[in-house]
From TrEMBL:
Residues in Enolpyruvate transferase domain copies: 418-846
GO biological process, alphabetically ordered: amino acid biosynthetic process; aromatic amino acid family biosynthetic process; chorismate biosynthetic process
The protein's name in its UniProt record: Pentafunctional AROM polypeptide
Species per Swiss-Prot/TrEMBL record: Candolleomyces aberdarensis
Cofactor annotation: Zn(2+)
Length: 1629
């Protein structure tokens, strides 16, 4: 070898087998070949690495082996195998592939395997080596940092299974581990950071010195891998750069610790567990986020959480947590799950506390309600020499995103404490010391986001050196005397939402000087989204005017800024200082370093926060530079002009940072509000901070006793509940404390007006609004003022409990409300982590130092359980209130709804009139509108309280006018029951109202009233019912339209009240369900073919994203349909079909047409869908979580289809990502939908396996799993739940590869999944029966392979017995004369068949026997009564039948069909059913036997007299006797002329039967032939158009449709079947 190779060897398990260096490939070849002689060397790597490094290996190995040949023995072989990269290779299949390769190449026991790659290759190849030929030698050549410092060291090898990671493996030590750090130069930076997590971890548990090096050298370490080393630089020590040395020392340091631990504890008993620091929680997070988030990234978050647990236990100081956080951030690692890289992932929604604890429970190391966690005691040391047992409750509290404060008296009373270092002073001190000369030890520095950001930035600018002492309690700053440099190109200084840092650094960056080595020509400072809105304009204007080159890169006046390195010119500077004093401080702090002395003049009106300016000047003085404020020589008054001399700060050796006075306000306020005492021992009258005056100026005036010395403040609160409001307080000098004051004022008696805080509108959030909005949740009223607010205090007892406070990511909002929550039970502070900005361990201190208990609250699982039980899970009998404009048809709809539900209807106006004995008009006239509204409110309250069950209550249109009534309604809708807003187009309302006069007239145009009330109606209701276009109350609707309308009202109200949810029964195990996708821009285009289109399907999908109203037809590009258009579409659709609607807003990225960015609009439409009562709502899980949660909480009876569509073809059903999607979807959905794309047929098998495996999980939800594309059609055939189908009549398919319902049935049949069944008609004579035509037509239309035939027999004998016991028996119709005889052959009867005592339908049902076997039972049913009932309800509404004056029906005959007819009439609620039979005794027997002498049944013997007896109320007649047995007085029956005896025996039908004229009436003749029987003819001839005649054939059809559905589970395509049957029937006549 030409150049020497310097390797550093680390010993493990007694051998020097770890060799570290740079550019080691030749060294590796030489070492392996000489020390591990073999006939075959196999190098295994992945494609990524092969591309970069394989050639180099091949070259040196081939060359070396060439040289080795010629020694007699055959030349050893060098084989290479390249496998796909990524975790999926680490599987059983992956292992088998490698083994097959080795076997194929006849590798033997002496083979040496080389694993070149990351942890995946190392683990996999190591495991192969461990078992191949009972174990062969192998070497690790790690190429990722993670593999170098972690996975390659220790001998653990493993593969993954679908049950989890690393579950199968072995301990197998490699012969060598070659650590070639040069590989890191090609490693993606994210992978490098991934490995750094393990490096930081090792240092954190073991070696503080190492940690210090890591925390201060992140930039150099990154630089070492980012600058490629040329000519093998680094191979020898002589050629190694300083950066390379550093990198290697970091790696070696980390490996050495791991090697050491492994050596003393090889099989992981106690000590070795220490390397699990961060892994207990990290692994649980990883289990949820893999593969998107890398191991090290999860461990990084895990380390912080585990460190916080340690802090919560009082073991680790906040300094330790802060340093760890800063260090990990320095390597670009996420430190919390709210990091946008994580929180933006859909999977992040699964990161609930319960889920994480659950996963940790599975870990073999844990048992019972506690977990083993490595507890740090300080950086570099652990609490125990092993993992510590920690209770779940402690872990849960740390993991929770929200906090609940348990009210009570502080147990540490009297409290004495100090608060964290002041943020303002910390930031100033950092800048001063960094710019100063010499070393300064900063004590009590705040470890917070702000200071971390500031230090990181100063580091980046190479402005100073930072080091920690005293375990991090002291920061040692070595000042750079103002020398600063431009960060490398592409490196922006990121400041998060740290306002102070941003303002100070803006000027600091102008001090930066150009240098020839710069790669960038500007310094860029930027921040998060909120920071990018916060103002910095005036400062930039002033600096620009002074000659600095500063550009706004995005919004004018805000970050990000690009600052040119030109130095600060100095001289005269004018600055507008009315927005922020930080601008002033920023210039003051940097002023001494300008080229000329600066005179700073503050302009633009009132200077804000003078105390902070004074603080800056005071601190500058401590650092040796005296700025002076000018005074007006004439008046002696201070001017807003400052003179700052040139100079360099002199760092004092030690600087003690004062505690934060704003923070001190919280414990002091807690003392005030809880009537206890609190002393803050390092803030007093001498403080530099304005907020130090809070105790005196605010709390004392509210009734506390305050004692303050120069350095201490003590507050003693009055007894609880006795705080007094302060009439007016100007808080300009302590603006940050206003939130605390506001919280206290909420429970002080009287009004507190707080002024001088206008600037708080532009802080972390608009704090004034924030306080107003959050206080409102407690029921506390406030008034917003120009520069402050007024709080109207309330007694503690009157504040609302159970409030969840939103904190706007603002620490002060969170802490202020935690003060209030010490006296208000059950307050939840959301986003508890936002306190990190200034008091990261606030919650711990609240508990440990003040003595107020704090619990963790898992908002996610709070919502999850909330949704499981359903926020709107009201009782199914809960009354429904109707609201809406007058004239929308509330009464009409309400009455129909009540009768459909069998409930009582109340008109609230009538109720009021009866109650108060005065008409509404008169009431208004006499007492005025106000009195009327008050009376109306009282009535509303009464109805809510007293008629809470089984009522439909229609309210007056103006009920929403008063806020109090709106509150009552909202509360009802939220917790008790549905409130339906009945809506109708305004022009129709106007037309209708102009014709009406019962109500007092409006005093303003209707349209204005409408506009005002519309939003209130929506706000106060849970649902919208759209009344159809057209005037309902007039007779202008056709009877079919009216019937459709009635059906829809019944469907809507039964669904939403849960009386009968309109969900498809086919979404059940062992059933198949389908929905048709409507792809029209206007669904009405489908109506002419709606019956054909919906053949066989269980639901209709309304693709809202494809809807386009007429006005949008011409629009090119994205359109979003309006809510009113969508509502109209739903209303139209509802009038033509009762099928459930699947309401879908499919986004473009998921294969639809809805714009991806329009998430808000999508959620609004989905919400509208729920309000319209759609049965299924498709919710894409990629929508914002909060929105999804809201939908779930409002879904009521409807179901959520949680969906995920991957169109890329990249999603593989056997990859972990799919399960991740499934888990999220099954948390929010009642049904899960996952759609991928098939490239090959095999992809469908993978899908099938996936569906089968998740289907076995406990509580598995129904799954729609589909592959798109032609290759995926198989999956559409096999899918069972709600398979989307197309139809040949549709304009286009909703998705590629979609099949029609019929096609799928064919395919299922061919696959053997839908066997052909045989159906029969039993009876005699049946030769002319229409049943075969009916059913066979239906089967054919639906593509079902079944057949229906006649089985005519003399009696119920052998033939029938054989037929019903065949395996392919599908069902039978039974007709005369076997309706009773067949009963003994059946296993059981339905209730109806039992009651009627006759069977006309036999249904075979599959049942699971007690022993688990599958059996078949035969069920006897009776559909005759349903046929009769349907033919009546199609013509009469429930209110037509159940009239108040009493209602009557007549049944003629006393046989089996008569029983069905009576049963049908009774089920409709007919008041009295008269029964007539020629032989009266038979009728009496029937009533007695079948109906137990039911008193509402009356046997009559005189039809003529019936009309008189019923007083003309009879409006339903059903005849069940043969037509030949009837005769009419006017015209003799045709049969009578042929058969005289029949005439004598016939039933004489009088005309008076049809006397009823008051509404619709029906006469049904069950006689099948002729079509027009004497009875029907008589009805027609009676001259009464209100009577509708129903011929027997229609009843036959109706009952046949029911049979069809009972047998096949599918609706019969009535229209086509009916036409076919009738044509045939008429041809026969
Ligand atoms: N055995 C153990 O003790 C142990 C410890 C920790 C982790 N692990 C295992 O390690 C695996 C993760 O290892 P990993 O993080 O190294 O992932 P990895 O092996 O998947 O490598 C990460 C990616 O970087 C690519 N890559 C690797 N080296 C490269 C280089 N030099 N230049 C360019 N690209 C390169 C790879 O092709 C891959 O795409 C997991 O399976 C984990 O279970 C094992
Ligand atoms: Zn690890």
């Amino acid at each position: 070898m030409a150049d020497t190779t310097d390797v550093f060897k680390v010993s493990i398990l007694g051998k020097d087998s770890i060799h570290c260096g740079f550019h080691l490939i030749p060294y590796i070849a030489q070492t392996v070949l000489t020390t591990l002689p073999s006939s075959t060397y196999i190098l295994i790597t992945d494609t990524n690495i092969a591309k970069l490094h394989l050639a180099a290996f091949e070259e040196v190995f081939e060359a070396a082996l060439q040289g080795a040949s010629g020694h007699g023995s055959p030349k050893p072989r060098f084989l290479t195998l390249v496998i796909p990269p990524g975790e999926t290779s680490k599987s059983r299949e992956g292992k088998a592939n490698i083994e097959d390769f080795l076997l194929q190449h006849r590798c033997t026991r002496d083979s040496v395997v080389l694993a070149l790659g990351g942890g995946v290759i190392g683990d996999l190849v190591g495991f192969v080596a461990a078992t191949f030929m009972r174990g062969v030698k192998f070497c690790q050549i790690p190429t990722t940092l993670l593999a170098m410092v972690d996975s390659s060291v220790g001998g653990k090898t493993a593969i993954d299974t679908p049950h989890g990671k690393n579950l199968i493996g072995a301990f197998w030590q490699p012969e060598y581990i070659f650590i070639d750090a040069a590989f890191l130069e090609t490693l993606p930076p994210r992978e490098f950071s991934n490995g750094m997590a393990e490096v930081v971890k090792t240092a954190a548990i073991w070696n503080e010195e190492e940690f210090i090096s890591l925390e201060s050298h992140s930039a150099e370490i990154f630089a070492a891998i980012q600058t490629p080393s040329k000519n093998h630089a680094g191979r020898s020590k002589a050629t190694r750069s300083q950066a390379q040395e550093l990198l290697l020392s970091v790696i070696v340091g980390s490996i050495s610790v791991k090697a050491h631990i492994v050596t003393i504890d090889e099989r992981e008993t106690g000590l070795r567990n220490l390397v699990n620091f961060g892994h207990s929680i990290g692994h649980a997070i990883e289990a949820v986020l893999t593969p998107t988030i890398l191991h090290g990234e999860c461990v990084s978050i895990g380390m912080i959480l585990e460190a916080e647990i340690s802090r919560q236990m009082g073991i680790l100081s906040q300094v330790g947590v802060g340093r760890l956080t800063r260090c990990l951030k320095g390597y670009n690692l996420p430190v919390s799950v709210s990091d946008p890289r994580i929180s933006n992932l859909p999977a992040a929604r699964s990161l609930t506390v319960d889920k994480l604890l659950d996963i940790m429970r599975i870990d073999k190391k844990n048992s019972g309600p506690a977990k083993k966690i490595v507890i740090l005691s300080s950086i570099g040391a652990t609490y125990e020499p092993k993992a510590t047992v920690v209770a779940d409750s402690i872990i849960a509290k740390t993991l929770a995103e929200a906090a609940r404060v348990i009210p009570g008296v502080p147990t540490k009373n009297p409290v004495v404490m100090s608060t964290p270092g002041s943020k303002s002073i910390s930031n100033r001190a950092l800048v001063l010391a960094a710019l100063g000369q010499g070393t300064c030890k900063l004590r009590n520095l705040l470890h917070s986001d702000d200071t971390q950001v500031m230090m990181a930035a100063l580091n980046e600018l190479k402005g100073a050196n930072f080091a920690w002492e005293d375990g991090g309690e002291t920061l040692v700053v070595t000042g750079g005397q103002g020398s600063l440099s431009v960060p490398p190109k592409g490196k922006e200084i990121y400041l998060g939402n740290a306002g102070t840092a941003a303002r100070f650094l803006a000027t600091v960056c102008t001090l930066v000087q150009k240098s020839p080595n710069d790669t960038a020509d500007v310094t860029v400072i930027t921040g998060n989204a909120r920071m990018k809105q916060r103002p910095i304009g005036p400062l930039v204007t002033a600096l620009r005017a002074n000659g600095s080159g500063i550009d706004f890169l995005e919004g004018e006046g805000c970050l990000p800024l690009a600052i040119a390195p030109d130095g600060l010119k100095g001289g005269q500077i004018q600055l507008a200082a009315s927005v922020s004093s930080q601008y002033v401080s920023s210039i003051l702090l940097c002023a001494p370093y300008a080229s000329e002395p600066i005179t700073l003049e503050l302009i633009g009106g009132q200077v804000i926060s003078q105390p902070y300016i004074d603080m800056t000047i005071a601190m500058m003085k401590t650092f040796g530079i005296e700025a002076t404020r000018r005074t007006d020589p004439a008046t002696g008054k201070l001017l807003d002009i400052y003179d700052i001399p040139k100079g360099v700060y002199t760092n004092p050796p030690i600087y003690n940072i004062e505690s934060d006075a704003s923070s001190a306000t919280y414990p002091l306020a807690i003392a005030a509000i809880t009537g206890t005492s609190c002393t803050i021992d390092n803030i007093g009258t001498a403080s530099l901070q304005g907020d130090a005056k809070f105790a005196k100026e605010v709390l004392e005036k509210m009734g506390c006793k305050v004692t303050q010395t120069e350095t201490e403040t003590t507050v003693q609160g009055p007894p609880i509940g006795q705080l007094k409001a302060i009439e007016e307080v100007d808080m300009e000098i302590m603006t940050d404390a206003f939130l605390t004051a506001t919280a206290v004022a909420a429970v002080a008696s009287g009004k507190t007006r707080i002024l001088g805080i206008a600037n708080q509108r532009v802080k972390e959030c608009n704090r004034i609004r924030a306080m107003i909005d959050q206080l409102a949740k407690f029921g506390v009223d406030t008034v917003e003022l120009d520069d402050g607010l007024e709080v109207i205090g309330k007694p503690i007892a009157e504040l609302k409990r159970g409030v969840s406070v939103h904190c706007y990511d603002d620490h002060r909002v969170a802490m202020a409300f935690s003060v209030l929550s010490t006296v208000i039970e059950n307050t939840i502070i959301e986003e508890k982590r936002c306190v990190e900005k200034t008091w990261p361990n606030w919650w711990d201190d609240l508990e440990n130092k003040i003595g107020i208990k704090v619990e963790g609250v898992d908002l996610a699982s709070l919502h999850a359980t909330g949704s499981a039980s359903g926020v709107q899970q009201h009782d199914s009998a809960a009354s429904v209130f109707l609201i809406g404009m007058r004239g929308t048809g509330k009464t009409f709809v309400g009455e129909l709804a009540a009768s459909a539900l069998g409930w009582t209807f109340i008109d609230a106006d009538q109720y009021l009139e009866t109650k108060l004995r005065i008409g509404v008009r008169e009431l208004v006239h006499q007492k005025g509108w106000v009195a009327f509204r008050e009376a109306e409110l009282q009535i509303l309250k009464e109805l809510v309280a007293e008629k809470s069950q089984s009522h439909i209550i229609s309210l007056g249109g103006g009920i929403v006018e008063t806020p109090a009534a709106r509150e009552v309604l909202k509360e009802y809708a939220a917790n008790k029951g549905p409130i339906v807003h009945v809506a109708r187009p305004i022009d129709e309302i106007v037309k209708y109202l102009n014709a009406e006069s019962a109500r007092p007239a409006y005093e303003e145009p209707i349209i204005d009233v409408f506009r005002r009330r519309e939003p209130w109606f929506t706000e106060c209701s849970s649902h919208d019912f759209i009344n159809p276009v057209g005037d309902l109350t007039s007779g202008s609707l056709s009877s079919a339209q009216a019937a459709a309308n009635r059906n829809e009202i019944a469907r809507f109200f039964k669904h939403l009240t849960r009386v009968r949810p309109n969900l498809t029964h086919n979404v059940e195990p062992d059933r198949r369900s389908y929905f048709l996708c409507l792809t029209y821009p206007d669904v009405r285009q489908a109506f002419p073919y709606i019956e054909e289109l919906t053949e066989g399907v269980d639901a209709l999908e309304l693709r809202v994203d494809l809807l386009k109203s007429e006005k949008d037809y011409e629009t090119i590009g994205d359109t979003i349909p309006s809510i009113s258009y969508v509502a109209e579409q739903v209303a139209h659709l509802r009038r033509v079909t009762g099928l459930p609607i699947v309401f879908t807003v499919r986004t473009k990225s998921q294969g639809g047409a809805f714009p991806d960015k329009a998430e808000k609009e999508a959620l609004t439409l989905l919400n509208a869908g729920l309000r319209l009562g759609v049965e299924y709502l498709d919710v894409e899980i990629s929508l914002p979580e909060k929105g999804i949660r809201e939908l779930v909480s409002k879904k009521g009876t409807s179901q959520i289809v949680a969906s995920w569509h991957d169109w890329s073809g990249g999603m593989k059903w056997n990859a972990p990502g799919v399960k991740e999607k499934y888990d999220i979807a099954s948390r929010v959905g009642d049904i899960v939908k996952i759609v991928g794309k098939a490239e090959t047929l095999q992809d469908n098998f993978a899908l099938y396996d996936f569906a089968a495996s998740v289907g076995k999980l406990p509580g598995a939800k129904p799954l729609i799993a589909i592959n798109m594309g032609g290759a995926g059609q198989m999956s559409r055939i096999l899918n069972t739940t709600l398979t989307p189908v197309s139809h040949p009549l549709l304009p286009n398919k909703a998705a590629p590869g979609q099949l029609s319902f019929k096609q799928i049935q064919h395919a299922l049949h061919l696959l053997g999944l839908l066997p052909a069944k045989k159906f029969y008609l039993f009876g005699t004579p049946i030769g002319h029966s229409m049943s075969p035509t009916l059913h066979n037509t239906g089967f054919k239309l639906l593509g079902l392979p079944h057949n229906y035939e006649l089985l005519e027999t003399k009696d119920v004998g052998e033939e029938i017995k054989v037929a019903i016991s065949e395996p392919e028996f599908g069902g039978a119709s039974v007709t005369i004369p076997f309706k009773l005889d067949v009963i003994p052959l059946l296993d059981r009867l339905t209730d109806a068949a039992e009651k009627i005592g006759a069977v006309n339908t036999v249904i075979p049902k599959t049942v699971t026997n007690a022993d688990g076997g599958i059996g078949k039972v035969l069920v006897g049913d009776n559909t005759d009564w349903l046929g009769i009932r349907a033919s009546i309800t199609q013509r009469l509404s429930a209110s037509d039948i159940q009239r108040q004056q009493g209602s009557a029906g007549l049944v003629i005959g006393a046989g089996g069909t008569a029983r069905a007819a009576i049963y049908a009439l009774k089920s409709l609620g007919v008041g009295t059913v008269y029964v007539y039979n020629r032989t009266k005794r038979k009728a009496e027997e029937l009533v007695e036997q079948a109906f137990g002498g039911d008193k509402t049944l009356k046997v009559v013997d005189d039809l003529e007299g019936l009309a008189r007896e019923t007083g003309g109320t009879l409006n339903i007649i059903v005849s069940t006797v043969p037509a030949s047995a009837t005769t009419t007085a006017s015209s003799p029956s045709p049969s009578s002329s042929n058969d005289r005896t029949a005439v004598a025996a016939g039933v004489a039908l009088p005309k008076s039967l049809f006397d009823y004229r008051d509404g619709p009436a029906v006469v049904v003749d069950m006689a099948y032939k002729p079509e027009e029987t004497p009875l029907l003819r008589l009805a027609k001839e009676s001259g009464s158009s209100n009577w509708a005649g129903v011929p027997g054939v229609e009843v036959l059809l109706e009952q046949g449709y029911v049979q069809f559905e009972l047998w096949t589970g599918r609706k019969c395509p009535k229209e086509q079947v009916g036409t076919t049957v009738l044509t045939r029937y008429r041809a026969q006549e």
